[in-house]
Amino acid sequence: MSDKELEGKWDQAKGKAKEEFGKLTDDKSTEAEGKTDQVKGEIKEGLGEAKRKIKNTFDDK
């Protein structure tokens, strides 16, 4: 697993925590920020995974 994949997973976890905190405190802004952070994390994780797979493809040849 690449650094970007780990960063993405971490961002997703932080975003989920922020979203849940927003729900608990009835803070729609914090809840929305958490959802946004989760999406950013998913994108970062996906890019890291793609980069790793491409690198592995060329390293195997």
From TrEMBL:
Chain positions covered by the region annotation Disordered: 1-44
Pfam families: CsbD (PF05532)
Stretches assigned to the CsbD-like domain: 5-55
Stored InterPro entries: CsbD, UPF0337_stress_rsp, YjbJ_sf
Similarity remark: Belongs to the UPF0337 (CsbD) family.
Protein name, as recorded: CsbD-like protein
Organism field: Nonlabens ulvanivorans
